[in-house]
Amino acid sequence: MKVVISKADLLKTLIVASRSMLSKANLPILSNILIDASGGKLEVVTTNLETAVKASVKCQVDAEGKVTVPGKVFLEYVSQIPEGEILLEKLGEEVVVSTKGYNARFATMPSEEFPAIPKITGGKLLNIDSQKFLDSVTKVSFAAAQDESRPVLSGVFVEFNKKGMIMVATDGYRLSYNETVVEAGEGLSGLGLVIPAKSIVEASKIIGEAGEEGGKVTVVVAENLSQVNFKIGEVEFTSRLIEGEFPAWQKIIPTNFATKAVVPKQDFINVVRAASIFARESGSIVKLKLEPGKNGQGSLGLSAATAQVGSGDAQVSTQLDGKGGEIAFNFRYLLEALSVIGGEDVVFEMNESLNPGRMTSTDPKDKFFHIVMPVRLQG
Prior knowledge:
The protein is an alpha+beta fold. It has 3 domains: about 1-115, Roll (DNA Polymerase III, Chain A, domain 2); about 125-250, DNA Polymerase III, subunit A, domain 2 (DNA Polymerase III, Chain A, domain 2, Roll); about 255-370, DNA Polymerase III, Chain A, domain 2 (Roll), CATH 3.10.150.10. The chain has helices at about 5-15, 70-80, 130-140, 195-210, 265-280, 330-340; strands at about 1-5, 30-40, 40-45, 50-60, 60-65, 65-70, 85-90, 95-100, 100-105, 125-130, 155-160, 165-170, 175-180, 190-195, 215-220, 225-230, 235-240, 260-265, 285-290, 295-305, 310-320, 325-330, 345-350, 355-360, 370. It is elongated, with a radius of gyration of 25 Å.
């Protein structure tokens, strides 16, 4: 193998590919990256056996070949050498990197030992605007369970139907839903999959780095529903899918609400943050109190108290329709939801103190909503 490539192109490719690389692995080959030079391009592949990244870039290939090198140190070294052209050459059992007075040799492992990355052929296909995909992942993925005691809850449910593409995630305490208008591709209509939340977040980061304005993401689902592949430009990300049936999430969503408040989003964030100072030592619980006023106006109050620290409360004016009431939540759940809602105002709706609350945007075109389960109020 002998390749001439610019430092910038090589570094960008290595950074993208490193998202599926293990720096420490029980299987040493998983700490390596596979470099394949052929057909006028350099292809870099990494895998952790759960996900895989394949990134390629055009370059001058003087001699084709494959090799694996220690991924972490190789990436670190390339990032430190000066800009310009780099010569990569396999000599014996080493790979030599040379440029402008810099020379380094890297130990290799046989490319045959590198795990084969399954190629999804004949699967179900969809092309989606990259920005729509990124927006949807951002709005739902944070609500997935962090632990894997119930594996299906650690994933994001993705379904294709007449409305387009919906994404749902829940950890049992909250639920995020987003709907995006897309053209369902070959055989995708009516299909539902559960993608590990960690994987779909990594895919979105890669797409964000590799994509361009107006770019398209090609999504391919294996016929046996075991894997999904995301491709944008010269980058591919492959992930396993989670087996099992996603919970019937529709059942926990109230059909109507007794109280509706429209709250300036930044004001809402500010009062939650202020109350959170006193909630950190008491289970992160803050109490919301909605009080109706005159002519469709009202107030939203937030309070929290801890015996060892003290207490605090704050109020913000709202537009309010309904009887009002009190309800308590984990403040972190409120802040995470508020961070992804678009626009300057937020709609908050509730029924009684033990019923879920809902948060949405005021934009009717935005099909996002977030359901939060309340905490029982004492007394």
